[in-house]
Amino acid sequence: xxxxxxxxxxxxxxxxxxxxxxxxxxxxxxxxxxxxxxxxxxxxxxxxxxxxxxxxxxxxxxxxxxxxxxxxxxxxxxxxxxxxxxxxxxxxxxxxxxxxxxxxxxxxxxxxxxxxxxxxxxxxxxxxxxxxxxxxxxxxxxxxxxxxxxxxxxxxxxxxxxxxxxxxxxxxxxxxxxxxxxx
Length: 183
Hints:
This is Cupin domain-containing protein. The chain is an alpha+beta fold. The chain is built from five helices and nine strands, in the order αααααβββββββββ. The radius of gyration is 24 Å and the shape is elongated.
């Protein structure tokens, strides 16, 4: 954990000097410098005072780099294909257990020839077109703006039943960090 670097980064971004932090917290400049260079580990009470002086939640100081904001610009999205019909998948942002993607499904195409199952829970938002979804014995049609969710461990299938390419926003939650592909 690199708490010292987190503190220094926040302090510099907010244009706060070590002297200003020390004035507000009562810490010495030498001790504050040791904290920022990770030469000493401050107590929780000291971290609370530093967080208060920086006007950030204590938890923010404790976040690992991979737990902070993850930005994926539109032009930087990873694009893959999936399934037998090689559906276009644009990977949006993700966390350790949640992935979001936009899937383009050409007219008449589907996520497979037969329903399939995998780990996780899925939430779907139809952004364009009309799709048919099947999970077990349940089936339904969804139009633009409609949404649905399901537990993906039950075999399921999605098919585009419209004359245009359907676009579906999908969010997948899995217990494991490295889950199987959804299609």
